[in-house]
Amino acid sequence: MHAWVDGQLLDDPEAPAVGVTDHGFTVGDGVFEAVKVVDGRPFALDAHLVRLRGSAVGLGLPSPDLDAVRAGVEAVLGAAERDGGLSLGRLRITVTGGSAPLGSGRAEHDELTLAVVAAPMAPAAASATVVTVPWPRNERGALAGLKTTSYAENVVALAAARRAGADEAVFANLQGHLCEGTGSNVFYVVDGELRTPTLASGCLAGVTRRLVLDWVGASEVDEPVEVAETADEVFLVSTTRDVQPVVRWGDRDLEVGPVTRAAAATWAEREVQLLGR
Question: In the chain, fewer beta carbons within 10 Å around the N or the C end?
């Protein structure tokens, strides 16, 4: 693992590097992106940086210096290359509100904390199992659609899914419509039609979600989570999963059908093209 914080590549990536009064540490006042690295190259970095800036502004933080972010990315990937390279890895880019009082109020300055970490990543599992959790996403909340470091709700939901023997937890929203997973967007097939929730559902505007919509095509609809639970096919998408078939939802087994297989094949082909390999 290699880490870069506020312009400095750390000799020891696990050494203390952020103050205890950092607002990201004390109250989760920050945003982040996870970017896949393939053969030392970040995948869809520009799209991730656009979303990083949008999340920061949506949270009320100053727009981060994306040139500085890119410098951090180059620094950690360069260090990884000197250590033998990163064939499959993940970049974690984090921006927080910086040092602040020990409470919800922000300090009266625009000095953000910026950290970039590169680490190896294991390939995603060939398939996933999911359960619907009882806690709804608030599609009208202040953080809806933002990728913030306030992830405790996801931690609780994923832990519940693991206790139920599943790999991922799926949320409905306050209307009872399908929303998203803890770290994934959900696609499903009904009567041969590929569907996924609209952004109005409160789901994250996933970079992988957007690429699947562009490359594969799907209808964006908001409908009860029960429709997806009884769909013919389901797959998850995310930076770390790509297109991952769901083979069980709750107590119901699912087949990996033709729409899912075609989406996965298209993804694999277009990813190679985008990386220029």
Answer: C
The pLDDT averaged over each successive group of 10 residues in the chain (277 residues) is 93 87 94 96 96 96 95 95 92 95 86 95 96 97 95 97 98 98 98 97 97 97 98 97 97 97 96 78
pLDDT tens-place string over residues 97-154: 999 898 998 888 779 999 999 999 999 999 999 999 999 999 999 999 999 999 999 9
Please give the sequence-ordered ranges of beta strands (E in DSSP) within 59-137, or none if there are none.
88-96, 113-120, 128-132
HSE-CB for 155 with a 13 A CA cutoff:
4
For residue 200, give the DSSP letter: G
Sign of CA dihedral 220, 222, 223, 229: positive
Q: Are 31 and 63 in contact (CB under 8 A)?
A: no
DSSP 8-state code for residue 159: H
What are residue 194's DSSP bridge partners?
189
Say how far apart CA 188 and CA 196 lie, in whole Å.
6
Beta strands (DSSP E) in the chain are: 2-5, 8-9, 30-38, 41-42, 88-96, 113-120, 128-132, 168-172, 178-181, 185-190, 193-196, 219-220, 233-238, 242-249, 252-253
The DSSP element (H or E) to which 70 belongs, if any, is helix 66-82
How far, in Å, CA of 236 to CA of 249, rounded? 12
Alpha carbon of residue 231 to chain centroid: 24
Q: Report the distance separating Cα 118 and Cα 127, nearest Å.
A: 25
pTM recorded for the entire structure: 0.93
Amino acid code (one letter) for 198? T
Give the integer Cα–Cα distance in Å for 77 and 71. Answer: 10
The letter for the amino acid at 258 is P
Contact 45, 239 (CB under 8 A): no
